[in-house]
């Protein structure tokens, strides 16, 4: 949820690029609005907004502290409202801009054990789609939107997550660089939505047309029904170890 740096400027002499970075807790709307004002004053108007911050609690629902549930919703979902409200007005005025929502495949279909994360990503997807329709209704065709829904990305965020071992070779965690390339291609070509890998389109389609019990059978076949359980157990063990080290 935090962006690195604090108004620092990095000059690249070979390509004459200037990169500005700011620290901002996107889960707090006042922080977002004040940082957006700094950006406008020090850099200028933002024409490309990428909502990418994400957190996960790593607890079963009844074992998850309320504060962590609220944090997941604020960072993964509510922040999209604040950043969009901060930068969309100028985009509307100029009829120019691009809003990118980095959601997740778990914003299109769900799994057990990560209720807060799924709810937040479903919320982000719903927000993005509604906003896209609003821009179309307002005939602001100069403002593009792209929804990015990747499968499990190998960043360590969901370390331990496992599907059925026979399926894993065909559906391994995605490399971050690959996801970035796919997302950038979609953005540069004004693609409204990108699911990575393409198999996610099929899973989403099947989930939409099949009865719930058939979806359960499909999940069990893929090992997706309890794929998060090893991840949650690993997080719980790590938490217990830290508590033991700290004498709590």
From TrEMBL:
InterPro entries (alphabetical): NAD(P)-bd_dom_sf, Sc_DH/Rdtase_CS, SDR_fam
Entry's localization field: Endoplasmic reticulum membrane; Microsome membrane
Reaction(s) the record says it catalyses: all-trans-retinol + NADP(+) = all-trans-retinal + NADPH + H(+)
GO molecular function, one term: all-trans-retinol dehydrogenase (NADP+) activity
Entry membrane topology: Single-pass membrane protein
Membrane among keywords: yes
GO CC annotations, alphabetized: endoplasmic reticulum membrane; lipid droplet
Predominant location category: endoplasmic reticulum
Keywords tagged on the record: Endoplasmic reticulum, Membrane, Microsome, NADP, Oxidoreductase, Signal-anchor, Transmembrane, Transmembrane helix
PROSITE patterns the record matches: ADH_SHORT
Protein name: NADP-retinol dehydrogenase
Native organism: Chordeiles acutipennis (Lesser nighthawk)
